[in-house]
Amino acid sequence: MSKKLPTRQEDYSLWYNELVKRAGLAENSAVRGCMVIKPYGYAIWEKMQRQLDDMFKRTGHENAYFPLFVPKSLFEAEEKNAEGFAKECAVVTHYRLQTDPDNPGKLRVDPNAKLEEELIVRPTSEAIIWSTYKNWVQSYRDLPLLINQWANVVRWEMRTRLFLRTAEFLWQEGHTAHATAEEAVAETRQMLDVYAEFAEEHMALPVVKGVKTPNERFAGAEDTYCIEALMQDGKALQAGTSHFLGQNFAKAFDVTFATKEGGLEHVWGTSWGVSTRLMGALVMAHSDDEGLVLPPKLAPIQVVIVPIYKSGELDALLERIRPIQQGFIARGIAVKVDSRDTERPGFKFAEWEMKGVPVRLAIGARDLDAGTVEVARRDTKEKMSLPLADIVASVDQLLNDIQVNIYQKAKKFRETHTTRVDSYDEFKRVLDNEAGFVLAHYDGTSETEERIKTETKATVRCLALNEPDEDGVCMVTGQPSVRRAYFARAY
């Protein structure tokens, strides 16, 4: 392997960027602000996608696909939404290129090929989807409409970072229509629970479920629910959102339905999404100075077997390893035998450690003769010698233990980096010296929230759903407050 990674302590940002590249997850592309997701990184995303897709379908949702382009007039229809995304939009104005008469061999935009109406490259799909729903919904019998799409979106970011903030990214977006406000709110909350379950059970990432303040709410929503996670540098990361749209989009696109009673009403809407930003969360929440640490449920390779052999012995050793490999496959465990004869075992150990493979087996002929296998776990770096006879069952249990341990470690980190404060001075001191989540009273006004953000760079991450009401006073203005909010500096 090349020289060691920068440490998290030295330069967390550089550590993250280098790790994403060296672990083979992604790299910068020829298009400024966009990334290439490499096969190993895409394999992790595929596992995320597969699991989430199963969870969506279990809750009654179906997949569809809608156009990449949104006519400007449709985009403008819901004013708050259009205004909220206006500064991030990529816009198509022409539909043809032509040879440049002044520069042989070059092309230019054909000035005569201007579109009658500009097309927005979707930053989110509410506009195009709700204009479609107008044709799909006539009666209460057509509801609820439970649709999800897996797609790419474009938000023109100038300051980008692989996975966390790129001009184009991959995501899923659910868009549902309901007969009542109660049904739509229940859907919004249900999908928040799905995201939280996925984060905790599969990503091994503890999250706080909450609702956003009006300042942080999705443009065009009545309420935005979110899951917030804590990264190892003490910064928060919004890992998923679920929006109750009220009737805003239904009214903007005139999506109505005939009720059972014979009346005509606008439907109630939701939208919800997670993106490849979860890949960044996975890296930052668990990894260490030697490389990735992947929870087994999302690891593309859960077990790697490194043969230990002398010259001329490899083929015979691989034959003896094959039944072990087949045993893992039969158990549903993703296993790889690193049979390269161009690299030494030490190089392979370091490479698979960098890639975060949860369990490594080093197997030589002498081990097989003795009926034991050297097993190393990535999360604790502990090595052990296990009996060959029940190695598949032992490793299966070990993978479960690693999944739990990674979650518990992240949860303990969050607990030790969550602080309750009562004064603004203490709030600033904790942010500067300890970081993490800070629970504090504030008066709930946009002005106070904006002042705190300007002065400390901390935002209200959410009003946690499980945080009890508690009378207090705003740490800034001294005005009454009925509950604490979660504050943090964030990605």
UniProtKB/TrEMBL annotation:
Localization (cell): Cytoplasm
GO MF term list: proline-tRNA ligase activity
Keywords, in A-Z order: Aminoacyl-tRNA synthetase, ATP-binding, Cytoplasm, Ligase, Nucleotide-binding, Protein biosynthesis
Function: Catalyzes the attachment of proline to tRNA(Pro) in a two-step reaction: proline is first activated by ATP to form Pro-AMP and then transferred to the acceptor end of tRNA(Pro).
Domain notes: Consists of three domains: the N-terminal catalytic domain, the anticodon-binding domain and the C-terminal extension.
SUBUNIT field: Homodimer.
Protein name: Proline--tRNA ligase
Organism: Hymenobacter jeongseonensis
